[in-house]
Description:
This protein is mostly helical. It has 2 domains: about 5-135; about 135-170. It has helices at about 25-35, 50-55, 60-80, 85-100, 105-115, 115-130, 135-165, and strands spanning about 5-10, 10-15, 40, 50. The strands form 2 sheets. A two-stranded antiparallel sheet has the order 1-2. It has a two-stranded antiparallel sheet with strand order 3-4. The chain is globular and about 70 Å long. Mean pLDDT is about 80; it is low at about 1-5 and about 15-20.
Amino acid sequence: MRGARCDVRGAQVNVEGPQGSNDRALVALRKWAVLLDSAFRVPGTQMRFGLDPIVGLLPGAGDLVTGFFSVMILLHSVRLRIPKVVIARMVLNTGLDLLVGAVPLLGDLFDAGFKANLRNLQLLERHAQRAVKPQTSDYLFVGLCLAILSALAVTPIIVLLWLFANVNLF
């Protein structure tokens, strides 16, 4: 895996990391992210996948492994004092990966394409190596996810209130 590079939506992530990066935990996280999200290439294509969608075929096991690794990336982000909005984006990436990943087969295909671990690692490295401020896209992503979650939480309450007001049970 030495010198290997992987691609997440056009951005390259070097397995060894940026020049001068001697954080052993970050190097280990990088290797695990590549193993889980892009260790293998489909012959004749540029499509890559890792162990995450393969292990995900076993109900519960894939989510457990990915969840544990995602928590490790998040803990390292907190330790390095990454901005909270970036950590929120990482949590939402992980939550989306785990939520869709729980759907049999469709979730495994999603895991192969979404690559949440590499996305989170890319965010971690972008904000840990240089004093990079969160981008507008980070705030927009977190805000959109919070709006969707709020709508999902409020909708059942509104439907129940409407049912109680308009349906005569007795």
